[in-house]
Amino acid sequence: LSEERDTIEEVIEPYLIREGLLMRTPRGRVLAEGAYRHLGLAAPANQTQLELMASQDEDDE
Asked: What are the angstrom distances between the C-alpha of 7 and each of 28, 51, 58?
């Protein structure tokens, strides 16, 4: 993308999170299950664990 970093973090990233395509985890940002479905790919086996970690991280905020 040719967008400024601030624009990506403040506009695009929150949109992708709301749409269920991206998650923030303690290890960084990862694709959510919705992104894999959208791309026609199988989600990794540990996807459920990542989603649990992301939801716990959101609860802490």
From this structure: 18, 25, 21
Single-letter amino acid, residue 10? E
Give the number of domains in the chain. Answer: 1
Whole-model pTM: value is 0.66
Dig out the tokens for 13 from the structure.
């990233």
CATH code, domain carrying 36: 1.10.10.10
For 1-60, what is each residue's pLDDT tens digit?
688 989 988 999 999 999 999 998 888 898 998 999 999 999 888 766 666 666 665 555
Q: Output the CA angle 1-24-19, nearest 5 degrees.
A: 65
C-alpha R_g of the chain: 12
Q: Please say whether the beta carbons of 23 and 54 come within 8 A.
A: yes
